[in-house]
Amino acid sequence: MITLLAPAGLAAAAALVVPLLIHWVRRSDRRIISFAAMRYLSEHSHPRERLRLHEPCLLLLRLLMIAVLAVLMALPIVRGKGEAQSPWILLAPDVDVAAARAAVSAPLAEWRWLAPGFPPLDGPAPVAAAPLASLVRQADADLSPGTALTLIVPEELKGLDAERLRLGRAVTWRVVAGTGAVASTPASPSPSPSPWVSSPSAVTLSVRFDAGGAAELPLVRALAAAWQVDGTAIQWDIAAPDAPLPTTPGWLIWLAGPLPPGIDEWVRRGGSVLASRQAAGGGTVVLRDATGTAVLRATELGKGRLLTLEGPLRASESAALTAPDFPQALRELLRGPPTAPDRAPAASVAPLLSGHPADGPAQSLDPYLALLLALSFLAERLIATRSRVTA
Amino acid sequence: MLIPPEVRSRLRGLRFANRLHANGLGLGQHRGRSRGAGLEFEQYRAYEMGDEPRRIDWKLYSRSDRFFVREATRDSPLNVWVLLDATASMAQADAARPDYSKFTAAKLLAACLAEVALLQGDAIGVIGITGDRVQLVPAGVGARHRDRLLIGLEGLVCGGHWPGEASFTQVQERVAVDSLVVLISDGFDEGLPVLAQNLAATRRQVLSLGVVSCEERDFFFAGGFIFRDPETGAQCRVDGAAARADFLIRFAAARRELKDRLAQSGVPHVEYYLDEPPDVPLRRILAGAE
Predict the structure, then answer these.
(1) CATH says B5-16+77-288 is which class?
(2) Chain B residue with minimal CA distance to A54?
(3) Is there a contact between A33 and B95 if contact means CB atoms under 8 Å apart?
(4) C-alpha to C-alpha distance for A105 and A341, rounded to whole angstroms
(5) Contact at 8 Å (CB) between B90 and B106?
(6) pTM, rounded to two decimals
(7) Which residues from chain A sit within 8 angstroms of residue B247, using beta carbons?
(8) Cβ count within 10 A of residue B54
(9) pLDDT of A153-201, one tens digit each?
(10) Is residue B254 within 8 angstroms of chain A, CB to CB?
(11) Domain regions of chain B by residue span
(12) In angstroms, rounded to a whole number, what is the distance separating the alpha carbons of residues B160 and B152?
C-alpha cells in the first residue's frame, strides 16, 4: 500500500502544463505562404481546433519526468504487510539484564536494547540518552503487525513525553528492577511529597568583581537575599576576576568589565551569567524600564545563557532594577526555561491500544523514483538531441 | 533571360505550324494567304480587268477560248504573339526553388518561343498583361530582334489583377488577324478563357500554356500554415495534411474544367510544371497545333 507523506507535493504536477504548452506553442508558429490556388481549398481544410502536439514521444517523456518529480516531492512510502517475525523483547538501557532474563522466559525471541537502531543484547548496554517513548513508538511502527513485542522497563521510566504511549499492537509490559540508584528509590519511599517534580535545589552563585564592581555588590546581596527568602539555597563564591570559575557551571555575576575569553565555553556547558557594564551588543531585550529603554539583554548559548547590562548593576542606575518583581524575573532568566516532566513510575504508564493497527514497516520509494527519473531524463536528452534527417 | 544550352539544342526540332494562313509580309515557311506568281499552283480564276496580261494562261485559252489567270500561293512568315499573364499570382514560386517563380518560367517559355520563331524567320512579339497597363515588346524578325526581345522580357514585371475586358481591345488591335497567339498564364484568372475565346473567335490561332507549381500539383504541405492569396490578400489557416486529398481533387477538377473551356473555343491547353524543362510543354503544344 502506497502512502504519500506530503500529498501537497503533488501540486507540483501543475507543472505538467509547461511541456504541453511548449509542444503546443511550437506548433502555432506558422509560416505565411503565398499561394494563389488557395481558392481551391475546401472549407473543411481549416485546421481543426483540436490539440495537436509536436514530438509526442518527447512530450510523454517530459510529462513523465515532471510527474515523477511531483510524486517524489509527495514523499511516497510503501507499507508492506510483512510476515510475522519472531517476537521481540526490548530492554530499556537501565534494566538489569540478568533480572530481565529471569523475569521473561522466551527462548525464541530476539533480545534487543531499546536504543537507536535497536542493537542486540550481546553488545554493551547503550547510554540512556535517547527519548524512550519515541523509541517505543518507532519499534511499534517498524515491526510487522503480527510480531509480538515485549518491553522490559525499570520501575522508574525516564525519557517520556507529554503524550501517553498508544501503540498499534498489544505489548507485554514487564517492569523489573533497574540498575541505577533511581530505580531503588521507590523501594524506600521518599519523604518528598512528589519526587517526580524537580525542586529548586541549591545553586552556586559566583561573583567576580573588580574595584569598579565593588559598588555594585550591595544590589547583588539584596538580590540573593530576595532569592533566599523565596527558597533558593545559595552557596556564595565571591572572588577577584582572575579566580577560576567552578567546574560545574552555575550562576555567575560578573562585575569586572569585559567578559574573559573562556566564558563562552563555560556558558555553553550550562552556566548562566549576568554581566554589568557591557557594550550594547546582540541578544533579545528581556527587560525595559518605564521609558522603554532596554535594560537587560539575553543571549542563549548552548545550554546556558548570557544576560548583559549596559550600565552598572546599581539601584540608582535604573528604576527597573529596584522594581519589586525584579529578583523573581532575574531568577527565572538565570534559571532558564523549565524542563518538562519526563519521568514516571513504569507501572502507571503502560502503553494503551491506539485502536489503529500498526501499519508495518515503511519503505521509501525514492531510490526507484530517482532511477526512473534519471532514465527518463537520459532518454529525453537522447531523443531531443538526436540528429534529425530533415534539418 | 538565358535559355539553358541543352534546352536550346532541343528547341531546334520544334517548329510553329499554323492552321490558318500565315499573314506575314515577305517570304516565309508557312502557307500564306497571298497569291500571285509563284511555284505552288493554287487555282485558275477568270480574268478580271487589271490583271497583268502575262499572267494569263495562254495554253488554257487555246483550249477553252477564255482568259484564265493562273494563281500560285506564296509561303509567308507567321506573326507570333506571346501573351504573358503578369498578374501578382504569377510571382509564386516553389519553396524548394524560390528563385524560379511562375513569371520567370513564363518569361523563359517566351524566350524559347522566340528562339523557335526567329529560327523559322517568323515575327514574334510579347505582351505582358497586368491590371494597370499592357507591357509590350513589339513583334519583329531577325537576330537583332531576339536581343531586343530578351531585353524587353527582362524588363517585364508582374503585379496587380487581371484587367477588365476593356483593355482587351488593345490586345486585339496589336495582334493582327491570322496571327498565332500563345497565352502563358497560371490559369487562375477568370478573364483568361474569355480573352482566349475572343481571340480565337476573331480568327487568331490561340495556344494556351498553364504554369503550375509543384506545390499546387503535389501539395506536400505538412503541419499548419497560413496561405495568402497574392492578388486579393485574403488569408486562411490550413492544416496541410488534412487539406491535401481534397485540394488535389478540386485542383485537378479546376484544371480539367479550364482545359475543357478552352477546348470549346478551339484552344489547346498544356500544363507546364515548374520542375520540367521548358521545352517539354512547347513540344507538346506545338505538336498538338499541327
Answers:
(1) alpha beta
(2) B223
(3) yes
(4) 34
(5) yes
(6) 0.51
(7) 37, 40-42, 45
(8) 7
(9) 888 888 888 888 888 888 888 888 777 544 333 433 444 444 444 445 6
(10) yes
(11) 5-16+77-288, 30-76
(12) 19
